[in-house]
Design brief:
With about 350 residues, the chain is α/β, with parallel strands linked by helices. About 35% of the residues lie in helices and about 15% in strands. The protein has eleven helices and 13 strands. Helix 1 packs across helix 5 and helix 6 packs across helix 10. The N and C termini lie far apart (about 65 Å).
Length: about 350
Protein backbone atom coordinates (compact mmCIF):
# COMPACT_ATOMS: atom_id res chain seq x y z
CA UNK A 1 0.00 0.00 0.00
CA UNK A 2 0.92 3.65 -0.46
CA UNK A 3 0.37 5.39 2.88
CA UNK A 4 0.34 9.08 3.74
CA UNK A 5 0.88 10.05 7.38
CA UNK A 6 0.13 13.59 8.48
CA UNK A 7 2.83 13.85 11.12
CA UNK A 8 4.75 10.60 11.38
CA UNK A 9 7.82 11.22 13.55
CA UNK A 10 6.50 11.69 17.11
CA UNK A 11 5.18 8.82 19.25
CA UNK A 12 2.13 7.23 17.57
CA UNK A 13 3.15 8.47 14.13
CA UNK A 14 6.65 7.14 14.65
CA UNK A 15 5.39 3.70 15.64
CA UNK A 16 2.88 3.67 12.79
CA UNK A 17 5.69 4.38 10.35
CA UNK A 18 7.78 1.53 11.76
CA UNK A 19 4.88 -0.93 11.45
CA UNK A 20 3.94 0.15 7.92
CA UNK A 21 7.56 -0.18 6.77
CA UNK A 22 8.03 -3.55 8.49
CA UNK A 23 5.02 -4.86 6.55
CA UNK A 24 6.36 -3.72 3.20
CA UNK A 25 4.26 -0.60 2.63
CA UNK A 26 5.45 2.66 1.05
CA UNK A 27 5.16 5.63 3.40
CA UNK A 28 5.03 9.38 2.80
CA UNK A 29 5.23 11.92 5.64
CA UNK A 30 3.72 15.37 5.43
CA UNK A 31 4.89 17.60 8.29
CA UNK A 32 6.85 20.73 9.10
CA UNK A 33 10.17 18.92 9.45
CA UNK A 34 10.73 20.05 13.04
CA UNK A 35 10.95 16.74 14.93
CA UNK A 36 13.27 13.75 14.45
CA UNK A 37 14.12 14.76 10.91
CA UNK A 38 16.83 12.12 10.53
CA UNK A 39 14.45 9.24 11.13
CA UNK A 40 13.29 7.00 8.31
CA UNK A 41 15.58 7.91 5.39
CA UNK A 42 13.56 5.52 3.19
CA UNK A 43 10.35 7.53 3.69
CA UNK A 44 9.27 10.22 1.22
CA UNK A 45 9.16 13.53 3.06
CA UNK A 46 6.85 16.35 2.01
CA UNK A 47 7.38 19.56 3.94
CA UNK A 48 4.73 22.08 4.86
CA UNK A 49 2.50 23.46 7.57
CA UNK A 50 -1.01 22.00 7.23
CA UNK A 51 -2.39 25.21 8.69
CA UNK A 52 -1.00 27.26 5.81
CA UNK A 53 -0.29 25.12 2.79
CA UNK A 54 -1.58 21.77 1.48
CA UNK A 55 -0.21 22.24 -2.03
CA UNK A 56 2.28 19.34 -1.71
CA UNK A 57 -0.71 16.98 -1.35
CA UNK A 58 -2.69 18.23 -4.35
CA UNK A 59 -2.77 15.93 -7.34
CA UNK A 60 -1.31 13.03 -5.34
CA UNK A 61 -2.99 9.72 -4.52
CA UNK A 62 -2.41 7.23 -1.70
CA UNK A 63 -4.30 4.12 -0.64
CA UNK A 64 -4.89 5.57 2.82
CA UNK A 65 -4.04 8.54 4.99
CA UNK A 66 -3.51 8.56 8.77
CA UNK A 67 -4.08 11.93 10.38
CA UNK A 68 -2.18 11.91 13.68
CA UNK A 69 -2.16 15.67 14.29
CA UNK A 70 -5.63 17.03 13.56
CA UNK A 71 -6.86 19.18 16.46
CA UNK A 72 -9.10 21.75 14.76
CA UNK A 73 -12.02 21.09 12.39
CA UNK A 74 -10.68 23.64 9.92
CA UNK A 75 -7.44 21.65 9.58
CA UNK A 76 -9.19 18.32 9.13
CA UNK A 77 -11.77 19.61 6.67
CA UNK A 78 -9.04 21.13 4.50
CA UNK A 79 -6.90 17.98 4.39
CA UNK A 80 -9.89 15.68 3.77
CA UNK A 81 -11.09 17.85 0.89
CA UNK A 82 -7.66 17.85 -0.73
CA UNK A 83 -7.27 14.07 -0.46
CA UNK A 84 -10.79 12.90 -1.33
CA UNK A 85 -11.55 10.84 -3.43
CA UNK A 86 -8.06 10.01 -4.76
CA UNK A 87 -7.04 8.70 -1.33
CA UNK A 88 -9.98 6.40 -0.49
CA UNK A 89 -9.43 5.74 3.26
CA UNK A 90 -9.01 8.38 5.96
CA UNK A 91 -7.93 7.25 9.44
CA UNK A 92 -8.39 10.04 11.96
CA UNK A 93 -6.73 9.77 15.38
CA UNK A 94 -9.29 11.20 17.77
CA UNK A 95 -9.52 10.59 21.54
CA UNK A 96 -11.81 9.07 24.14
CA UNK A 97 -11.94 12.59 25.54
CA UNK A 98 -14.46 13.40 22.85
CA UNK A 99 -17.17 11.67 24.92
CA UNK A 100 -19.50 14.02 26.78
CA UNK A 101 -19.70 12.20 30.10
CA UNK A 102 -17.82 9.53 32.06
CA UNK A 103 -20.12 9.31 35.06
CA UNK A 104 -21.10 5.74 34.07
CA UNK A 105 -18.89 2.68 33.64
CA UNK A 106 -18.33 1.10 30.25
CA UNK A 107 -18.69 4.02 27.82
CA UNK A 108 -18.87 2.57 24.30
CA UNK A 109 -18.98 3.95 20.77
CA UNK A 110 -22.73 4.60 20.98
CA UNK A 111 -22.43 7.14 23.78
CA UNK A 112 -22.90 10.80 22.88
CA UNK A 113 -19.97 12.96 21.89
CA UNK A 114 -18.98 16.20 23.53
CA UNK A 115 -20.87 19.32 22.47
CA UNK A 116 -19.75 20.37 18.99
CA UNK A 117 -19.69 24.04 19.86
CA UNK A 118 -16.78 24.72 17.50
CA UNK A 119 -18.34 23.35 14.33
CA UNK A 120 -19.11 26.72 12.80
CA UNK A 121 -16.18 28.62 14.28
CA UNK A 122 -14.28 30.81 11.82
CA UNK A 123 -11.08 30.78 13.85
CA UNK A 124 -9.41 28.20 16.04
CA UNK A 125 -10.31 28.45 19.75
CA UNK A 126 -7.53 27.96 22.31
CA UNK A 127 -6.56 24.30 22.72
CA UNK A 128 -7.14 23.59 26.41
CA UNK A 129 -8.21 20.56 28.48
CA UNK A 130 -11.75 21.94 28.28
CA UNK A 131 -11.81 22.42 24.50
CA UNK A 132 -9.75 19.37 23.50
CA UNK A 133 -12.62 16.86 23.64
CA UNK A 134 -15.23 18.98 21.86
CA UNK A 135 -12.68 19.87 19.18
CA UNK A 136 -11.87 16.22 18.57
CA UNK A 137 -15.59 15.44 18.35
CA UNK A 138 -16.01 18.18 15.75
CA UNK A 139 -12.98 16.94 13.79
CA UNK A 140 -14.53 13.47 13.64
CA UNK A 141 -17.69 14.94 12.12
CA UNK A 142 -15.63 16.90 9.61
CA UNK A 143 -13.94 13.70 8.37
CA UNK A 144 -17.21 11.79 8.25
CA UNK A 145 -18.96 14.53 6.27
CA UNK A 146 -16.42 14.09 3.48
CA UNK A 147 -15.42 10.41 3.73
CA UNK A 148 -18.63 8.88 5.06
CA UNK A 149 -18.24 5.12 5.56
CA UNK A 150 -14.63 5.29 4.32
CA UNK A 151 -13.49 6.98 7.54
CA UNK A 152 -11.73 5.06 10.30
CA UNK A 153 -12.23 7.00 13.54
CA UNK A 154 -9.72 5.88 16.18
CA UNK A 155 -10.42 6.92 19.78
CA UNK A 156 -7.34 6.04 21.83
CA UNK A 157 -7.19 6.19 25.59
CA UNK A 158 -3.90 6.55 27.45
CA UNK A 159 -1.15 5.53 25.00
CA UNK A 160 2.15 4.51 26.59
CA UNK A 161 5.41 3.05 25.38
CA UNK A 162 8.86 4.04 24.09
CA UNK A 163 9.13 7.69 22.93
CA UNK A 164 6.18 8.72 25.11
CA UNK A 165 5.97 12.53 25.18
CA UNK A 166 3.76 12.60 28.28
CA UNK A 167 5.13 12.04 31.76
CA UNK A 168 2.59 10.10 33.84
CA UNK A 169 3.36 6.51 32.89
CA UNK A 170 7.08 7.15 32.36
CA UNK A 171 7.34 8.61 35.87
CA UNK A 172 5.87 5.49 37.49
CA UNK A 173 8.10 3.19 35.44
CA UNK A 174 11.13 5.15 36.62
CA UNK A 175 9.86 5.49 40.19
CA UNK A 176 9.01 1.83 40.76
CA UNK A 177 12.41 0.84 39.37
CA UNK A 178 14.10 3.17 41.89
CA UNK A 179 12.59 1.19 44.80
CA UNK A 180 12.06 2.18 48.42
CA UNK A 181 9.03 3.77 50.08
CA UNK A 182 6.92 5.16 47.25
CA UNK A 183 4.19 7.78 47.56
CA UNK A 184 1.13 6.97 45.42
CA UNK A 185 -1.96 9.20 45.59
CA UNK A 186 -5.55 8.09 45.80
CA UNK A 187 -7.21 4.73 46.22
CA UNK A 188 -5.49 1.42 45.36
CA UNK A 189 -8.82 0.19 43.95
CA UNK A 190 -9.24 2.95 41.36
CA UNK A 191 -8.95 1.49 37.85
CA UNK A 192 -6.69 2.78 35.12
CA UNK A 193 -6.55 1.86 31.43
CA UNK A 194 -3.38 2.04 29.37
CA UNK A 195 -2.48 0.62 25.98
CA UNK A 196 0.95 0.12 24.48
CA UNK A 197 1.23 2.51 21.54
CA UNK A 198 2.70 -0.33 19.45
CA UNK A 199 -0.45 -2.43 19.95
CA UNK A 200 -2.56 0.52 18.77
CA UNK A 201 -0.28 1.10 15.78
CA UNK A 202 -0.35 -2.54 14.71
CA UNK A 203 -4.15 -2.61 14.92
CA UNK A 204 -4.50 0.58 12.84
CA UNK A 205 -2.21 -0.80 10.16
CA UNK A 206 -4.16 -4.08 9.94
CA UNK A 207 -7.46 -2.20 9.75
CA UNK A 208 -6.20 -0.18 6.78
CA UNK A 209 -4.75 -3.26 5.10
CA UNK A 210 -8.21 -4.83 5.34
CA UNK A 211 -9.87 -1.57 4.18
CA UNK A 212 -12.02 -1.45 7.30
CA UNK A 213 -13.67 1.69 8.61
CA UNK A 214 -15.91 2.68 11.51
CA UNK A 215 -15.56 4.12 15.00
CA UNK A 216 -13.51 2.34 17.66
CA UNK A 217 -12.40 2.85 21.26
CA UNK A 218 -8.74 1.80 21.21
CA UNK A 219 -8.04 1.33 24.90
CA UNK A 220 -6.36 -1.35 26.93
CA UNK A 221 -5.54 -3.61 28.56
CA UNK A 222 -8.22 -6.19 27.75
CA UNK A 223 -9.58 -5.70 31.29
CA UNK A 224 -8.97 -2.49 33.30
CA UNK A 225 -6.43 -2.83 36.09
CA UNK A 226 -6.44 -1.12 39.47
CA UNK A 227 -3.84 1.40 40.50
CA UNK A 228 -2.60 -1.16 43.04
CA UNK A 229 -2.21 -3.85 40.36
CA UNK A 230 -0.41 -1.37 38.12
CA UNK A 231 2.14 -0.56 40.84
CA UNK A 232 2.63 -4.22 41.69
CA UNK A 233 3.25 -5.17 38.07
CA UNK A 234 5.62 -2.26 37.44
CA UNK A 235 7.57 -3.07 40.60
CA UNK A 236 7.75 -6.76 39.68
CA UNK A 237 8.86 -6.10 36.10
CA UNK A 238 11.66 -3.85 37.37
CA UNK A 239 12.72 -6.38 40.05
CA UNK A 240 12.76 -3.59 42.62
CA UNK A 241 11.86 -3.34 46.31
CA UNK A 242 9.43 -0.42 45.90
CA UNK A 243 6.89 -0.26 48.76
CA UNK A 244 3.67 1.57 47.99
CA UNK A 245 2.40 4.08 50.53
CA UNK A 246 -1.06 5.31 49.54
CA UNK A 247 -1.65 8.96 50.30
CA UNK A 248 -5.07 10.57 50.41
CA UNK A 249 -5.69 13.00 47.57
CA UNK A 250 -7.30 15.48 49.97
CA UNK A 251 -4.02 15.84 51.85
CA UNK A 252 -2.05 16.41 48.65
CA UNK A 253 -4.45 19.18 47.60
CA UNK A 254 -3.43 21.12 50.71
CA UNK A 255 0.22 21.21 49.61
CA UNK A 256 1.61 23.00 46.58
CA UNK A 257 4.23 20.24 46.24
CA UNK A 258 1.54 17.58 46.58
CA UNK A 259 -0.25 18.79 43.46
CA UNK A 260 2.56 17.38 41.35
CA UNK A 261 1.82 13.87 42.60
CA UNK A 262 -1.89 14.34 41.92
CA UNK A 263 -1.00 15.24 38.35
CA UNK A 264 1.29 12.22 38.04
CA UNK A 265 -1.46 9.88 39.25
CA UNK A 266 -4.36 10.98 37.07
CA UNK A 267 -6.61 8.23 38.47
CA UNK A 268 -6.41 9.69 41.97
CA UNK A 269 -8.48 12.86 41.70
CA UNK A 270 -11.30 12.38 39.19
CA UNK A 271 -14.46 14.47 39.36
CA UNK A 272 -17.87 12.70 39.39
CA UNK A 273 -18.38 13.44 35.69
CA UNK A 274 -15.00 11.82 34.94
CA UNK A 275 -15.22 8.98 37.47
CA UNK A 276 -15.12 6.20 34.85
CA UNK A 277 -12.68 7.75 32.38
CA UNK A 278 -10.57 4.61 32.76
CA UNK A 279 -13.40 2.07 32.45
CA UNK A 280 -14.13 2.50 28.74
CA UNK A 281 -15.51 -0.39 26.69
CA UNK A 282 -13.08 -1.77 24.08
CA UNK A 283 -14.99 -4.87 22.92
CA UNK A 284 -15.68 -3.47 19.44
CA UNK A 285 -11.97 -3.02 18.69
CA UNK A 286 -11.04 -6.33 20.35
CA UNK A 287 -13.56 -8.08 18.08
CA UNK A 288 -11.68 -6.73 15.05
CA UNK A 289 -8.30 -7.97 16.28
CA UNK A 290 -6.98 -5.46 18.81
CA UNK A 291 -4.67 -7.36 21.15
CA UNK A 292 -2.33 -6.43 23.96
CA UNK A 293 1.22 -7.32 24.92
CA UNK A 294 1.95 -7.94 28.62
CA UNK A 295 2.36 -4.86 30.77
CA UNK A 296 5.75 -6.18 31.92
CA UNK A 297 7.02 -6.02 28.33
CA UNK A 298 5.82 -2.43 27.93
CA UNK A 299 7.37 -1.42 31.25
CA UNK A 300 10.72 -3.03 30.47
CA UNK A 301 10.89 -1.40 27.04
CA UNK A 302 9.97 2.01 28.45
CA UNK A 303 12.58 1.68 31.21
CA UNK A 304 15.26 0.77 28.66
CA UNK A 305 14.33 3.81 26.57
CA UNK A 306 14.29 6.09 29.62
CA UNK A 307 17.73 4.91 30.69
CA UNK A 308 19.08 5.76 27.25
CA UNK A 309 17.31 9.13 27.14
CA UNK A 310 17.99 10.19 30.73
CA UNK A 311 15.64 12.07 33.11
CA UNK A 312 13.80 14.95 31.55
CA UNK A 313 11.23 17.40 32.88
CA UNK A 314 8.18 16.11 34.68
CA UNK A 315 9.14 12.42 34.75
CA UNK A 316 12.34 13.13 36.72
CA UNK A 317 12.26 11.86 40.31
CA UNK A 318 12.14 14.15 43.35
CA UNK A 319 13.18 11.91 46.27
CA UNK A 320 13.55 14.73 48.80
CA UNK A 321 10.18 16.23 47.93
CA UNK A 322 8.62 12.79 48.21
CA UNK A 323 10.17 12.21 51.64
CA UNK A 324 8.98 15.62 52.84
CA UNK A 325 5.42 14.83 51.76
CA UNK A 326 5.47 11.42 53.42
CA UNK A 327 6.65 12.99 56.68
CA UNK A 328 3.99 15.69 56.40
CA UNK A 329 1.39 13.05 55.64
CA UNK A 330 2.23 11.35 58.94
CA UNK A 331 1.76 14.62 60.83
CA UNK A 332 -1.46 15.29 58.90
CA UNK A 333 -2.87 11.86 59.79
CA UNK A 334 -2.08 12.34 63.49
CA UNK A 335 -3.92 15.66 63.51
CA UNK A 336 -7.16 14.23 62.11
CA UNK A 337 -10.10 13.81 64.53
CA UNK A 338 -10.37 10.28 65.90
Amino acid sequence: MKILILGGTVFLGRHLTEVFLSRGHHVTHYNRGLSNTRLFPEVEKLRGDRNLNLLPLRGRAWDAVVDTCGYFPRQVTASAKVLYPHTPLYAFISSVNQYADFSVRGVNERYSSAATIFQAAQSDPPLTPETYGPLKATCEKAVQEIYGNRALIVRPGCLVGPYDQAHRFTYWVRRTAAGGAMLVPGSPDQVWQIIDVRDAAEWIVRMLEEERAGIFNVVGPEQPISASQLMQQLTSSAGSDARTIWVDAEFLRTSSAGKRWLDLAEWSDLSPSMAHLYSIDNTHAVATGLCFRPLAVTAQDVLTWLELRGPRGADALDPEGEKDLLRARGRYAMALPR
